[in-house]
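Memo to structure team: turn this sequence into structure tokens by end of day. - J.P.
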Amino acid sequence: MHAWPASEVPALPGQGRDLRIHDTATGGLVTLDPGPVARIYVCGITPYDATHLGHAATYNAFDLVQRVWLDTKRQVHYVQNVTDVDDPLLERAERDNVDWVALAEKETALFREDMTALRMLPPRHYIGAVEAIPGIVPLVERLREAGAAYELDDDIYFSVESDPHFGQVSHLDAAAMRLLSAERGGDPDRPGKKNPLDPMLWMAARPGEPSWDGGSLGRGRPGWHIECVAIALDHLGMGFDVQGGGSDLAFPHHEMGASHAQVLTGEFPMAKAYVHAGMVALHGEKMSKSKGNLVFVSQLRRDGVDPAAIRLALLAHHYRADWEYTDDVLRDAVARLDRWRAAVSRPDGPPAEALVEEIRDALANDLDAPTALAAVDRWAAAQQEHGGTDIGAPGVVSRAVDALLGVAL
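Reply from structure team:
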């Protein structure tokens, strides 16, 4: 599966700061010190509907992580998956009487278009669940051989008790885990499981549903968590720098994935930091495909909204904060974009070197984009009120905003 084209990231004078970011597993800020190549895995979409602003906010956060790393002169090895076979996709295809493969391909293509428009840097490896199946099957077999997996009516489950570190990503109690498992794709009430929290590794073939040859596992399809583990281990290995996604992935998805990987490799932890973006709400409730309270990036674009304004609307909120989308949020972003473009359209202006450092400092401090935006606002206001004599300063600002914030002026 191919990703989307990369926008050029301007090179800036000087060098960026190492990133301090909130790690869910430790509950505090950690300073990331990757080697020459920083490694990041971000969980991708299940392509049964278009990209909404909640998706965009999550991918914007991890785009900022990449930009901070690139500014430190590191390379970035970014991997993202596409869960192109799963119950929600199959249910949507059946509801709409369309082929599930065609639906997945259509929505994945639209996601690429949205990411391109928003200037999100693409992953080096963009891998679908279906194409990952040949690498998933051996992992499930290894877990079964190690006694960390068991069969239940031909389905195969992972035993969470096989990982002594289980629970160290989300730090939730058993009651909260069971509740979230039921809400987020698990089946804690299924009779016969050793532990209600045990997640499925391999689902045996069901009538009328797609299935693949699983060798000794029989025909079926993979569970959600082992999909990401197989892709991450194949392309990044253990101990990569950041495992990212929305806050709703901390449990069960990232918790279970970490346990799968740790049992498979005997190493701990799977990732050096587990980083989670906040949720975006509409009309008082989290944007959700199941609820249908969505604002789609593609629809905003069709309505003539500049993608740079959409990006500024996202950047106006700290990545870890839960926030609510309103028309005012977008109006403010459009107005900010107009002010910034007017400010950089002049041939000279106030000195910009200090502004570049302010943006760097803000982003290195747990991706504090709102503080970075406020710094650019101050420069733009000074440009409007007093102008300046620094030839080329507007160009420096334009390149810095593009390189560090992903906004093309």
